[in-house]
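In this supplementary section we document a worked example of the pipeline. Step one takes a protein sequence of length 710 as its only input; no multiple sequence alignment statistics are reported here. Step two produces a three-dimensional model, which step three serialises into structure tokens for compact storage. The input and output of this example are shown verbatim.
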Amino acid sequence: MSTYRFAPASRHIRGWLFVMLVILLLGACGTSPTQPTPSPESIVATDVPDAAKPTDAGEATSSAALTGVVDDANELALGNLDDDQMQLRIQPGALPSGTTIAVAPLESAPEADPARFAPLGEPLEITAGQAHVRLDAPAVLVVPLPSDAEIDPSLLGVAFYNGQEWQVLRPARVDPEAGVMEFETFHFSWFWPAKQTPEERDRIMIQSAAAGEIARQQVRAATDRVTEQMVNQMMDQLGAKDGETRALLIEAVKADASYKQLQQRFANGDLQAFMPVLEKTVATALGGTLQEQLGKLLDPDDGTINPALKTLDKGAEAIDQYRMGNYKDAGKAVAALVIDLLPKPSIVAVFEAEAVVVDYCIDAWKKDEVEAAYKAWRDGADSLSPWGYNVDAQDFEAVWTQMRGAATRFQSEAVERFVKAAEEAGLTPTDAQVDAIREQTKTRLEEEFKRRLANEQTQAAMEAELTELLQAYEDANLLEWSRYGYDRTAQTREQRMRALLDLRARILNDTGRERMTLGAFSNDKAISIGDIVSLTQLLLSKNGEEKYAQALKDRFGITLGPPELPEDFTMTGAWVGDLIVQDAQVTGADELTIEMFDSETVITKEECESSLEEAKGRPTPVEMIFAELSPESGTFVLRAGDDEDPSEPIPYRRAGTQVTASYSQDGATFTLQGTLVYDGETVTFDGTWNMSMPGEMSISVDGTFSVVRS
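The serialised model returned by step three reads:
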């Protein structure tokens, strides 16, 4: 069990690590439920001489089977890792109470395709009530890691038989320290621990990435819809019926330089960060190119001031500023007014409803269950098809019904996001709103299936492009451990590939190119793979942002970014905003002990994983107080969440608009890198951070932040 000790002389001198753990672990872990302990009565182990035998896909016989009976109160655990080389855990509610679960070895199994995977250990058959069934909640299958621990973790999996062939399921967790890997499944079948071939692993990874890349194109459309609805609500609050003014304001907001920030903050599901940017873009438009429309809203000449403005301080201020010719300040006052007037229930509902679209468009294709459900919907399936579907082609209702627990999970996640967003806005969601989100999740998933089907050829072309790009990344050492910042202990190969594709998306955006070309040269519409790879290498090298910006200027004549920082700019002062967890990994020991002063807190691995998963995408208020020692360096302290005390001073360095910081304590490290963006009025500091805490229980957390000068 790992132990971290903190014994500062004063409570006001605290390590950054303790601050971060309080924010991300201690507070959240205290509320994380633990799985119920199975009772002895709920576990039965007996010899079953003749377990259920599938008849359509090869003869299977059983010996020394394990059985257990599901009940509504306790988790059912079958098997022992030492004796049985497996353990199956089924939580209450996954199957009807009284269902008998049988786990038996397969003495005869269909051969594995050596081009796809090599078996590890022995195959198993899992049945429930003499059948292969789908579950209402995921079961967890735990199997040992292979003894030759040098196997690349990204190749590990468990294969299941779909009646025609073996397909590999990716592990939910790999724990090298405990020597196990865990899999979540919503169905029972034949299972076989497996080592994928590198080619098969990459094929599946590319398929998932291509679906996600195509879906990512929906982000702008969804942001457009949210923006249009919110601008229309603003005009409703002002009583403005002028359709031309509405249309011009929507167009101006979308054309604003800050609109990319709106897209990013919408994609992150961050309503609290979205609204200030929307307010700023509306203010800029009304105080600039839309001064004529601002006059129509205020009517200063004929005295018919909009009644919504007359009795409100910001309304009176807007009118006064406009009459004095201070259009910029008048635009600010109107924008602040309408943001204040927007009904919170409405904006939360609008934002979250569209956020669901983005979540499922981009992330859903990383889930094995969604891919399997889509294929069953697209092609139709019989009872021996992948994951137990028996449906006609494109019968979504049947697929949704047979998804069972997977469908319930998707809806629950959507409802949780909606409730969280509402509570952050100080609201209590109504049952009708929750039901609407639950139903919308189903509707949106069906729409996504149809969208994917309509883009099958586009996806096939994208997969071909990504296959070429993957090889180019390989040749350029971007996927080689220890090169260009690739740390295999912090990133899986799939995570590394996703990070590289994020940089590809950035390069396309920065160069104004619509697509990637397989040719040797870039053109006005497309950028070559060679240029993408070389620009990626620059971004991931030392002083990468500077080198990247210079390369764009030299090769493409592109100067990045908004106006340069003011001549009198200084980092000194308080910056406030949000810190968001994007990804987290916990490996190793089952418990972590934190000793602080005269007390200690024990956190279990399960609590850490659950809490960090819950923390993903959730904004935590943060304050960074900078003290500049020179234009190139200084220190800052971090205060986050409800914590009253700041961290110890953390050193930082600045090169132009690029700021980097790093700090270490007791073997743990904290790094931060970000960009200062000046829009002619305010300076925003956005970027990424990482906390890595090695030990018997290792924790690594990646996230983003966005702060502005207070």
